[in-house]
Amino acid sequence: MGKLTGKVALVTGGTSGIGRAAVERLIADGAKVIFTGSNEAAAAEVTAATGATFFKSRVQSTDDWVRFEAMVRSDFGRLDIAFANAGMERGDSSVEKIAIEAWEELIAVNLTGVMLTAQTAVRLMRDNPGGPTGSIIVNSSMNAHNAMGNFVAYSTTKTAVLALTKSTAIHCATEGMQIRCNAILPGVVETDMIRGIINKSPDSAAARAAYEGMSPLKRMGKLEEIAALVAFLASDEASFISGAEYVIDGASTAGMLGV
User: Fold this and answer.
1) Set 54, 55, 154, 211: catalytic member
2) What PROSITE patterns does the annotation carry (predicted)?
3) What is d(CA 82, CA 138) in angstroms, rounded to the nearest whole number?
4) In angstroms, rounded to a whole number, what is the distance separating the alpha carbons of residues 104 and 19?
């Protein structure tokens, strides 16, 4: 604890799930945290619990990013950490059934939103007092490597952001900046949303077993475990890690047993 003291962090989609857990962990480690989202009631709960600063915005909106950059420059004077976490699955389907409107919305949030997060973060981090330094962390998914046939847009965007991560890392390094960019690839994590699906299932025990059975460790990931990885990559302990993918899925995508 305290290893992020003096640092300013951004978490997109910070009102629930992995985003909220990351806000809580970064605050606990000493950072000043700004989080974004659109659910003001949920944001008020996070702010009351952590003291983090809420900035209402949509990650796919260029205008909102202009406002965000101006706010950070005037109110905080620096940005050291950016966790590009915001994402969605709503409206997704198979390649045969997905509507173009749903495809375009998923691309806008899950891919363009991550690019705008990274673009704004690099712009701010380049001007940090003491020189261009910082850590950008992108929330991808194990489905970047194991695509889902019934979630074509989600799978596509989670793969695409890995290339975005690596391109950003290479660009920053070749520009002579100590700005790192890495991706995390979570497996099934026990969020409120997943618990809600389980509890609403006709056979909740079977639904839970199905989710837990996706990992050879026979359990879902914990929010705290994902947040701990984000905090590590945000810290100076990870100062030589850039352009990397960190799978955190309980060996779900590592391989399979032989026959």
Assistant:
1) 154
2) ADH_SHORT
3) 8
4) 23
Rounded CA-CA distance 102/89 in Å is 9
pLDDT of residue 257: 87
Among 250, 232, 137, 92, smallest CA distance to 186 is for 250
For residue 83, the tally of other CB atoms under 10 A from its CB is 31
- Residue range 211-238, pLDDT digits in tens: 999 999 999 999 999 999 999 999 999 9
What is the secondary structure of 118-181 as a DSSP string? HHHHHHHHHT-TTSSEEEEEEE--GGGTS--TT-HHHHHHHHHHHHHHHHHHHHHHHTT-EEEE
Please state, in angstroms and rounded to a whole number, the distance separating the CA atoms of residues 45 and 23.
12
- Tens-digit pLDDT profile for residues 66-109: 999 999 999 999 999 999 999 999 999 999 999 999 999 999 99
- Matching residue, tokens 């989609």: 13
Specify the residue for token string 């005037």.
Answer: 74
Is the four-CA dihedral 66, 156, 189, 92 of positive or negative sign?
A: positive
Q: Check: CB of residue 167 under 8 Å from CB of residue 113.
A: no
Secondary element (H or E) of residue 83: strand 81-84
The answer to whether 154 is a known catalytic residue is: yes
Taking 80 as the threshold, does the pLDDT of residue 48 lie above it?
yes
Q: With 0-12 CB in 10 A as exposed, 13-18 as middle and 19+ as buried, what is 32? A: buried
In this structure, the number of other CB atoms found within 10 A of the CB of residue 135 comes to: 28
Q: What is the pLDDT of residue 79?
A: 98
* Residues found in the chain: 259
